[in-house]
Amino acid sequence: MCSMSTPDLNVQIGERLKAVRERERLSQTEFGERLGVVLRTYASYERGERSLSVEVLKALYDEFRVDPIWLLSGLGPNLGQGAASRQQLDLLVEIIVRVERRLVQSRRTLPPEKKARLIALLYQYFQAKAGVEDDYVEQALAFTAL
Residue 115: which residues within 8 A CB-CB, separation 6 or more? Predict the structure, then answer.
């Protein structure tokens, strides 16, 4: 059987694979499970010790919309240009809902530009947190009144 991969290529693919996993905020175990492989197998992909199978490439596309051309070559759309992950979209939706609820409760409105900037700042802040905190949303809204 002929292999088109090389150790250097496998390392590069492993780095891109790790970037996708980190973008999704999953452990190696969780990510491997979503791809249908055990931790040991997945970890060997990320370290570049093993070539990806066609089944794993398909699972990466199906589960995370990873462009196989980009994964294998580094060419084409990168992570930032692809579709946002489900977790990113869920976070954004949660922030928007909480901001809107707080505005309704306080009988306030914000101009669209100001609301968009507030949501963007909250999104940046909560990306590093475990979840959205109502107190912080309330404080941020209080600053918008200034």
Answer: 99
In contact, 14 and 46? CB cutoff 8 Å: yes
Give pTM, 2 decimals: 0.53
- Taking residue 118's Cβ as centre, other Cβ atoms within 10 Å add up to 19
- DSSP state, 3? -
| Rounded average pLDDT over 78-95 | 66
* C-beta separation of 52 from 13 below 8 A: yes
> What is the gyration radius of the CA atoms in the chain, in angstroms?
20
Give, to the nearest 10 degrees, the angle between helix 7-24 and helix 28-35. 100
Q: pLDDT per residue over 36-85, tens digit each?
A: 999 999 999 999 999 888 889 889 988 888 888 888 888 766 554 444 55
Find where tokens 């306080």 sit: 106
DSSP state of 88: H
Name the DSSP class of 106: T
Tally Cβ neighbours within 10 Å of residue 124: 9
102/117 Cα distance (integer angstroms): 16
